[in-house]
Specification:
Largest sheet of chain B: 6 strands, mixed
Radius of gyration of chain B: 25 Å
Number of helices of chain B: 17
Number of strands of chain B: 22
Strand order of the largest sheet of chain B: 6-7-8-3-9-10
Helix content of chain B: 25-40%
Shape of chain A: globular
CATH architecture of chain A: Orthogonal Bundle
Oligomer: heterodimer
Number of helices of chain A: 12
CATH superfamily of the domain at 7-239 in chain B: P-loop containing nucleotide triphosphate hydrolases
CATH topology of the domain at 7-239 in chain B: Rossmann fold
Strand order of the largest sheet of chain A: 1-2
CATH architecture of the domain at 7-239 in chain B: 3-Layer(aba) Sandwich
Shape of chain B: globular
Order of helices and strands of chain A: HHHHEHEHHHHHHEEH
């Protein structure tokens, strides 16, 4: 029975951690499918987390926070778009520049505005996306197993976590079932074909960047207004890169990307549970090592287990009309 | 009252910086005709085409389509006027299916499901009308080059094109695929379509077109009915001077094999069998041509012979010395010292470093040679002298070895590579695609040089995608298909049809001297 509770708790925190990861991975997926490498996910998440926490703290409304987070992330996305699309700059450099800029700018602004050592004030619960209890969760919690799964595991997450899981089929639907998605996938494979078909490569790529900005904005907002209660320095903690890894592991496809995110989130949840726990044979693992787990897993997976990866062919290459 | 011409251009001009790519180009293409456009590489054909379908906008001049003056700001506007282009490099998204590629940009409605249903119905009609048989739900990546070209043509028809521009459509096709294409062009013409056929192969112009326009250095030099001209006249108009072949093949008795390839197999980069038990000899005083559709092992064969790829079994001998076998692999530097020169198939990838100067490229591969290098330091004045000698001997233009190689034309880059590789008087030459991207004037010169080397008793192996070229310079032609040597045909028995069938794997050699096991 205790073992079952452990599993439930572990799964519960897996879902919790997975939310922002899924949204960020989908953001990266939309960008790369359109041919733009978005290594700035990390910076955009962090910027959104900061903007959301600041706005929510001032207005006491999580919705204002979410909006601010999205706006911040979309603006950075457009900046990355301008560098990559109009100026045909190096997308890795642009993305890294965004990461570094935000890592410094967010705590500095937080310090200037709130004078709390680079943090935003702790958000009261009415300024956060709090846990939602799904209908009938209480009523059926008594049903063995199923009741526990529904009321303990599926119920009781923040709205943004549910948004993340709904975003997966939505992005899949857009990519594979709509005209826009067909064009977006085409522009990431062969922009010249899209151009000669009379469709604007520039417009399509900007549209993709805006979608990526929105998704990444929700992801960052979730960090500071749903999972946490305020912005703290470096709170994205490499999740943007982890999302990028999940997207590659998921071969640039929505559902496999979701599964990869869940795997990473599970390991992250596991490392949380392992902290301070004495294991049989090895004893207590120092916390520094448990925290490493998700990142070590990333390296192992990307180095050995992914097999041949087929990235979108035009990904990372600026489109020039005259070659 | 006569019918307005399908395309008329008046004094079309296009400049790129200081370069006048098109200079007062006036063109007249009749409705329902096949109109040829010929010109050398860089003559301005592509620029003209790109203006016709809206990819470029002219600096000045008029474009009149079906009697209506029009100006296209984008390809979609040209498409709306019924003009479509089939590019030399196909504009297809490889992982997409044929159907997805065809509807891209012409979906008609936001939901793919309905768009595809409608498109499928329309395409079935078109396929019947024009005799296509394309698998609509197969990814384009699985189609042959000829099929991909038909996808492009079907794509144009789907968009309601009445004027089709075919840009060097036969460059990548086997002779049989060319015949199929010509049949299709004739069918399109009989259904009232107007076709602009761009090529630099003159026999195609003679075979398929009704009228022909010759462009040289951005200007129209001739515009005439095909029936009233000859290939020689067209060639002269293209180059601006008479081309004549000055070197003829002398009779040679081939005494000894210089290069022996015995049962050689090798793996491709992807680990597949790229070469399967290939056996042949190259004798001194002969040119062995190697024909085949691109990607049938020719590249791997070149690499095995030049020390760039290990064999998985079999042996390669140069002048009786083992150079590539299970336990021996001599690298390119060693082979050069043994008198083997390599003129690389993909010039920009393996022949030169495009961003470095011509001088630096002139010693590429010889940079450790004591003539050019002492104690790890380059002997710059010796290198300059060598580069200047090469420029003189091959007439490389412009005569400025300090320019980066990228700023030379393809033909002049090739001349530089040839000069470099011939400088050490090699006895055996391995040549890949000797005239790819080289203009017609230089082609003749390169062919003459190959013949001269042969007459001087060297052994040459030439891989080419151009059958005409191989027929012009080879003593024997080996045909490869699927990594196997289908057979070797002596030149007196070789004709396009026989070779084409062998290339497609449909038949063996008529009088096969040697064949793969």
């Amino acid at each position: 029975m205790e073992f079952l509770v452990d599993i439930l708790l572990l799964s519960d925190s897996t879902l919790r951690v997975a939310g922002p990861l899924i949204l960020a991975a989908l953001a990266g997926l939309c960008a790369e499918r359109a041919g733009i490498v978005d290594i700035g996910l990390e910076g955009k998440m962090l910027a959104a987390a900061f903007a959301a926490a600041s706005a929510a703290s001032v207005t006491a409304s999580p919705w204002a926070g979410l909006l601010a987070g999205i706006v911040a992330s979309v603006l950075l996305s457009l900046l990355h778009g301008y560098v990559s699309i109009n100026q045909r700059g190096n997308q890795i450099v642009s993305g890294m520049a965004i990461n570094i800029m935000v890592a410094g700018l967010a705590p500095t602004l937080a310090n200037a505005w709130f004078s709390r050592g680079g943090q935003t004030p702790l958000l009261p619960s009415e300024a956060r996306f709090t846990e939602i209890t799904l209908p009938f969760a209480d009523a059926i919690s008594g049903v063995p197993l199923l009741g526990a799964i529904y009321s303990d595991l599926l119920s009781g997450h923040s709205l943004l976590t549910y948004v993340a899981f709904v975003a997966v089929p939505t992005v899949g639907w857009i990519l594979y079932k709509t005209r826009f998605g067909l064009r977006l996938r085409a522009v990431g494979e062969n922009p010249e074909a899209v151009d000669t078909a009379g469709i604007s490569v520039t417009l399509l790529r900007y549209q993709a960047m805006i979608i990526a900005g929105i998704l990444c904005g929700i992801s960052g907002s979730a960090l500071s207004t749903a999972l946490g209660a305020g912005f703290i320095r470096d709170m994205s903690a490499g999740k943007g890169f982890l999302a990028l890894a999940a997207m590659i592991f998921g071969k640039w496809k929505p559902v496999p990307t979701l599964l990869a995110c869940l795997l990473f989130a599970f390991v992250d949840a596991l490392q949380g549970r392992l902290q301070g726990v004495a294991l049989p044979l090895v004893g207590e693992i120092p916390v520094q090592f448990t925290i490493m787990l998700p990142y070590v897993l990333t390296v192992i997976i990307l180095a050995g287990f992914v097999g041949k990866m087929e990235a979108p062919k035009a990904s990372g290459i600026p489109y020039e009309k005259d070659r | 009252m006569s019918v307005a011409p399908a395309i008329e251009t008046r004094n079309l001009c296009k400049r790129f910086g200081a370069v006048q790519a098109n200079d007062n180009v006036s063109l007249l293409v009749d409705q329902g005709s096949v109109h040829g456009i010929v010109g050398e590489n860089g003559a301005g054909k592509s620029t003209l085409l790109k203006m016709l379908f809206g990819f470029y906008q002219p600096n000045s001049g008029d474009l009149i389509i079906n009697g209506v003056p029009l100006a296209f700001d984008s390809p979609s506007e040209a498409m709306a006027a019924g003009i479509a282009m089939v590019h030399q490099h196909f504009m297809l998204v490889e992982p997409f299916t044929v159907l997805e590629n065809i509807i891209l940009g012409a979906e008609g409605q936001p939901m793919l499901k309905h768009a595809m249903t409608d498109a499928r119905a329309k395409l079935l009609g078109l396929e019947q009308q024009f005799g296509f048989d394309l698998p609509l739900d197969t990814p384009v990546s699985q189609l042959s080059v000829g099929e991909r070209q038909r996808v492009e043509i079907l794509k144009a028809l789907f968009r309601g094109a009445d004027i089709l521009i075919l840009d060097e459509p036969t460059a990548v096709l086997t002779p049989q695929e060319c015949d199929q294409l010509f049949d299709l062009v004739r069918l399109l013409k009989s259904r009232g379509k107007t076709i602009l056929f761009v090529t630099h192969k003159l026999h195609e112009i003679m075979a398929i077109t009704d009228a022909v326009t010759v462009i040289r250095a951005g200007k129209v030099v001739t515009c005439t009915a095909t029936a009233s001209t000859t290939p020689d006249d067209l060639a002269e108009a293209m180059v601006g001077a008479k081309i004549s072949r000055t070197v003829t093949r002398e009779a040679k008795d081939h005494r000894s094999p210089r290069l022996r390839v015995d049962g050689v197999s090798a793996l491709s980069d992807h680990g597949h069998d790229a070469l399967k038990a290939i056996t042949f000899d190259v004798y001194d005083g002969e040119v062995l041509g190697v024909a085949g559709v691109a990607g049938n092992g020719q590249t791997e064969l070149l690499e095995v012979l030049t020390g760039l790829r290990p064999v998985s079994s079999g042996r390669v001998e140069l002048d009786g010395i083992l150079i590539n076998a299970d336990d021996v692999q001599r690298g390119p530097t060693k082979l050069r010292q043994m008198g083997l020169a390599h003129i690389a198939e993909d010039r920009l990838k393996t022949g030169v470093v495009a961003t470095m100067t011509a001088t630096e490229n002139a010693i590429l591969g010889y940079q450790h040679d004591p003539d050019f290098c002492q104690n790890g330091l380059l002997k710059l004045s010796a290198i300059d002298r060598a580069a200047n000698t090469y420029f003189d001997s091959q007439d490389v233009r412009p005569r400025d070895p300090t320019l980066p190689v990228a700023s030379f034309s393809g033909g002049n880059q090739q001349k530089l590579v040839i000069a470099r590789e011939l400088a050490r008087d090699p006895q055996t030459l391995i040549i890949g695609q000797p005239t790819r991207g080289v203009d017609i004037g230089a082609v003749t010169k390169i062919h003459d040089q190959i013949t001269e080397l042969r007459n001087a008793g060297k052994a040459l192996l030439v891989v080419s995608a151009d059958l005409d070229e191989l027929m012009a310079i080879s003593d024997r032609i080996a045909v490869m298909c699927g990594g196997e040597l289908v057979g070797i045909v002596p030149i007196q028995d070789a004709d396009e049809r026989t070779l084409g069938l062998m290339m497609a794997g449909a038949s063996g050699a008529p009088h096969s001297e040697e064949a793969s096991a």
